[in-house]
Amino acid sequence: MNSHLKSRLYISPGSPPFHFLRAIVQSFHLCHRYYAAKPHYDNDRRFRRKEASEGELLHLHKSKGQHLLTNPRILDTIVRKSAIKPTDTVLEIGPGTGNLTLRLLPVARKVVAVELDRRMVEVLHKRVAESGFQDSLSVICQDALKVDFPPFDLVVANIPYGISSPLIIKLVYGENPFQSATLLLQKEFARRLLANPGDSEFNRLAVNVKLVADVEFVMDVSKRDFHPCPKVDSSVVIIRPKPEVPEVNLAEWCSFTKTCFGKKNKTLGATFKQKKKVLELLELSTRTVSDSRNDEGYENDDEESDYDEEEMESPGCGSGTTLGLFKEKIIGVLRSGGFEDKRPVKMKNEELLELLSLLNQSGVFFHNQADDRQLHSFCY
C-alpha cells in the first residue's frame, strides 16, 4: 500500500469512538478502491508482457524495423479508427508475431498478411491457429515492395520505417483500388507526410501523395509502447485515395516534382537555369517529341523543330545555340506564368500542375516514356 493511502488511514489515539468507527469504514472503502483498481493495471501489464514474449523468443532486428507494438489500447484504437466492415479484406504489411493481426481477424472477412521474415510467419500461424481464425488468414512470405498485392479493401499496418516512402507510393499509385490505409509511421516521417505548402517539412513525397490522396492525423504513439523500444516516437495516419485525380501523366508528374524539389527552397528560375539540368531536359524532350511523332505516323524530316536532332546525337550535343534556345524557352514559360521567382516549398499542387502543363505544351518534358520501370519507382 502506498504512503499516501497509509496517511489517509492513520487514527490518532485520542479519537472518539464514533470517529474511530467512521475511520474504519473509510479505510474499508479506500482499500477496496485501491485493490479493485490494481488488478486491471496488473492484467494490462501481464497482457503486454505476453504480447512482447512472442518477440522475445526471436531475435528482433532493429535495423529492419522489427519493433512489435504491444500496448493493447493503441492496438484496439487502430482497429477502431480503421472502420473495418465484416465484408472487408484487410491487407496487413509487416504483421510480425500477430499482435495487430489477432485484432483484425474477428472484425474482417479476411486478412492478407505480407511478412518477409519466415520466423515471424511461424509464430503468426501458431497464434492464429490457437485463436481459431486460421481460415480467415492468408500469409504471403515475400518482400512487400516486390510482390503484387491481391485485391483488398483496406490497409492496416505497422510498417517497417525503412520502407515507408516506397510502400506508401506503391499503395497510392498502385493498380489496386482501396478505401483507406491506416498506417503506424515514424513520427517525424508522418509530420512530413502531413505537411502543407509553406511548412518547413513540406517535401516531394507530400506533394506526390496529396495529388491522389488525402492524409489525416489520428494520434501519436510513444516509443515505450513497442518491444524492443525504438529510439523515436510514432504516429498513426489514415490515407484515403481521392475519388477524382487530376488528368496528368503520373510518371511525368513524378519526374517533374523530382526536378522541382531537388532544391525545394531555390527559386524555379535558379533551378531551370542550371546548364546540366537544361541539357538533361533538352535530350529527354527531343527524344520524347521524336517518339511522339513516330507514334502518330509523322516523318521527322518534314517537321520543323526549335532544335536539331542530328546535333543532339553528336558528341557535343546540346552545346551552343541549341542549348541556349531551349533554355530561353523554359525561362520564357516560367516568366509568362509568373513562376520564375516562386519556390517549390511554398507552391500548391494546382500551381505545379499548371506549370507542368505549360512546359509540356512548349515541348519540355521530364519523363522518358521508354523507361519501363514501374510507375511508383519515379515518385519517391
Automatic annotation (TrEMBL):
Alphabetical UniProt keywords: Methyltransferase, RNA-binding, rRNA processing, S-adenosyl-L-methionine, Transferase
GO MF term list: RNA binding; rRNA (adenine-N6,N6-)-dimethyltransferase activity
Binding site for S-adenosyl-L-methionine: H67, L69, G94, E115, D143, N158
InterPro entries: KsgA/Erm (IPR001737), rRNA_Ade_Mease_Trfase_CS (IPR020596), rRNA_Ade_methylase_Trfase_N (IPR020598), rRNA_adenine_dimethylase (IPR011530), SAM-dependent_MTases_sf (IPR029063)
Segments forming domain Ribosomal RNA adenine methylase transferase N-terminal: 74-243
GO cellular component, one term: mitochondrion
Region Disordered, residue ranges: 290-321
Family to which the UniProt record says this protein belongs: Belongs to the class I-like SAM-binding methyltransferase superfamily. rRNA adenine N(6)-methyltransferase family.
Name of the molecule in the record: rRNA adenine N(6)-methyltransferase
The organism's taxonomic lineage, starting at the top: Eukaryota, Viridiplantae, Streptophyta, Embryophyta, Tracheophyta
